[in-house]
TrEMBL record:
GO cellular component terms, semicolon-separated: cytosol
Domain of life: Bacteria
Alphabetized InterPro entries for the sequence: Beta-ketoacyl_synthase, Ketoacyl_synth_C, Ketoacyl_synth_N, PKS_Beta-ketoAc_synthase_dom, Thiolase-like
Source organism phylogeny: Bacteria, Pseudomonadati, Campylobacterota, Epsilonproteobacteria, Campylobacterales
Gene Ontology terms for molecular function: 3-oxoacyl-[acyl-carrier-protein] synthase activity
Protein name: Beta-ketoacyl synthase
């Protein structure tokens, strides 16, 4: 039974190639910094652009540090009544690769450190959560984790939920996308007419979601919308029908007028098929209103299972700072009926819609807004 509980994001942090914390991330976006690097070590005989975190800490240590920072800044004395939700498409694959490439054998691989729930397994060594659940739905993984967090808080099942969206760079994913011929050899240019493809990237994004707001900066998860169009194993529906349904479902769930949405943080990967489909979907849903649209993957790269969470962090900061973040490198837009922005816009931001779309036609949209509760 649905209660009147609301889901508030009270604390968050993010680490990516665009910054080692959320403030650096948003500053990099607004200052339009070059964050994507060129690499020739992942794909044989080819240079590709990737989003690699610039840190001396091992990835798992950085993950623990980021989670600890969010929890330390929270109002929680302990985490015994907190649900941990992981969203990841890679899990511990990068750890498995390290062992395999070192030993040229699978014999020394720890099976507990490989699957999707390897992230939860790692975090439970340092934190005592009530329970944990892991989502692995490709590029909607952490967006679905956020939607689930909203649901269990709305229903009064949990008061505190920690969502962790995380994916590390791995040879398996980079080479896999290379095999699909969708990687770019330069920083990606989503919605640019002459775009080349996507940039695989790594990131960590952590959000503490609670049933009571902490202060005026708390961001409410107002709506979550899903669809599954099942059009193709890797290609979205060309007319964007599934994506449009997910967006409309999120708006319906939030019970708001779509005219109030100021900004859409698009999935915007930079591939020909995804961008075209998503623009069709946006045009279908927002046929009268024209919210601003940008893809921050032009700064962070495509962080796969972490994308929904890191883009929710960006959406939170857009609402808190009342700034619409820009895209980067758009010179010749594919469509003139969409309100793209290449520059940060300081203006009123009421609601932000964040899109995440995945293989198999799995579509998720999360609608966020600043709480105006007393």
């Amino acid at each position: 039974m649905i209660t009147n509980k609301k889901a508030y994001i009270n604390s968050f942090e993010a680490v990516s190639c665009a910054g080692l914390d959320s403030q650096q991330l948003f500053a990099s976006i607004c200052e339009k910094k070059d964050c994507i690097s060129i690499d020739n070590s992942y794909v044989q005989d080819r240079s590709v652009a990737i989003g690699k975190i610039d840190s001396k800490l091992p990835f798992n240590d950085l993950l623990t540090k980021t989670v600890n920072k969010v929890l330390t800044n929270s109002n929680l004395e302990n985490y015994n009544n907190t649900l941990l939700i992981i969203g990841s498409s890679v899990g511990g694959m990068n750890e498995t690769e390290k062992v395999f490439f070192k030993d040229s054998s699978y014999e020394n691989i720890d099976y507990k450190k490989h699957p999707i729930d390897a992230i939860a397994y790692h975090l439970k060594q340092d934190f005592t959560f009530y329970d944990d659940i892991s989502f692995s739905t490709a590029c909607t993984s952490s967006a679905n984790a956020l939607g689930y967090a909203k649901e269990v808080i709305n229903k009064g099942i949990y008061k505190n939920v920690l969502v962790v969206g995380v994916d590390a760079l791995s040879y398996t994913t980079v080479c896999g996308f290379s095999a699909l011929s969708v990687l770019s050899s330069k920083p990606c240019t989503p919605f640019e007419k002459n775009r080349e493809g996507m940039n695989v990237a790594e990131a960590i994004a952590v959000l503490l979601i609670q049933d009571e707001k902490e202060d005026s900066k708390s961001v409410e998860i107002c709506g979550a919308g899903y669809s599954s169009d099942g059009h193709h194993m890797t290609q979205p529906h060309p007319e964007g029908l599934g994506a449009a349904k997910a967006m409309q479902n999120a708006i319906n769930d939030a019970k708001i007028n779509k005219e109030k949405i100021s900004y859409i943080n698009a999935h915007g990967t930079g591939t020909m098929a995804n961008d075209s489909s998503e623009l069709n979907a946006i045009s279908l849903v927002f046929d009268t209103s024209k919210p601003y649209v940008s893809s921050t993957k032009s700064f962070t790269g495509h962080t796969l299972g972490a994308a929904g969470a890191i883009e929710a962090v960006i959406a939170c900061m857009s609402l808190q700072k009342q700034i619409i973040p820009p895209s980067k490198n758009i010179k010749d837009v594919e469509r003139e009926d969409i309100s793209f922005t290449n520059e940060p816009l300081k203006q009123e931001v009421s609601y932000v819609l964040s899109n995440s779309f995945a293989f198999g036609g799995n579509n998720t949209s999360i609608l966020l807004g600043l709480s105006n509760d007393n």
